[in-house]
Amino acid sequence: MYDITAHLVEKFGPIGSETWKAEEDRAWEEYNADILREARKEAGLTQSELAKRIGADKAYVSKVEHGRTVPTVSTFYRIVAALGMQVVLTKLPM
Question: Of 63, 61, 66, nearest to 82 (Cα)?
Answer without folding.
Answer: 61
